[in-house]
Amino acid sequence: xxxxxxxxxSRQYKINIKRGILEKLGDHIxxxxxxxxxxxxxxxxxxxxxxxKIDRTLSEYFKVDFIEVEPGESSKSFKTMEICCEKLAxxxxxxxxxxxxxxxxxxGDLAGFISATYLRGVDFIQVPTTLLSQxxxxxxxxxxxxxxxxxxxxxxxxxPKAVFIDPDLLSTLDEKYFSDGMAEVIKYGxxxxxxxxxxLKECTDINKIIEEIIYTCCEIKADVVGxxxxxxxIRMILNFGHTIGHGIEKVFDYKKYSHGExxxxxxxxxxxxxxxxxxxxxxxxxxxxNLLEKYNLSYELPVVEEKNLIxxxxxxxxxxxxxxxxxxxxxxxxxxxxxxKSDEIKNYI
Length: 349
Description:
alpha/beta, 2 domains, DHQ_synth_fam
């Protein structure tokens, strides 16, 4: 088993990566949780595939209840959160119990935010089931729901008690959603690890090195979170491609583009334009484009009303007053934070 430590100021915990770890999840949880009750929050797709398996391993040691939500961004809402919290109340969940977030990024964000707020805090663990959640969203404690006005605008920083990653769960992932996660993997190579970026270029069978890839991405994120848990400084680099990406998701009502697809476009578009401004090494955008194409990701900005996109981008959480902090590359593996006036974002899209 590959293990990493996340040394956030609010909590220290382990990321555990192992093929087949789901089969023994109950054994692992028993080592870090002495209570008797677990509440698993998942979505209907994951439940259909894995509910019997996870119930079997957890029920050896715990009384287990399940809450299932619909898959997709629409579940990251106050409405879904309220329904879930009412169910927690009906089940008499207490602060001494443990919540298990078992699903992709949507489930992790939703279950994490419920954990952070219900009874002012219930411990939870992350068991991510998609590549995107395994390499990124399950680690670091960012939990949130969406508003009509934008993505992740209501949330908290609330670290899990542990993260358990089973790469075997990716075998049932649709190709579209595997590519979705590869956008975040490529992001890590862009911002911090040229070797990872080059390995992705040269790789002929991604599944053979998937554990190494997950470990590398989680290691980068754990280091950054340990240095800046609350996203006030260096942690912002993890949002490379996200400023434009979140805007694209919002403009298309979270229906046409998945998170990874939107981030992929955001990485290429902002790099292409920062090259034109002399802020990024020439040829960097083409390198990103070629790698995105290899992993079946689009890179061109879709036809969109520029004003609508800019308005969506201006709701970005990295905005302070009239200024916006964006993430640019000097070159592959080397990024920086640039503070611009909000109106200047039009130069980067």
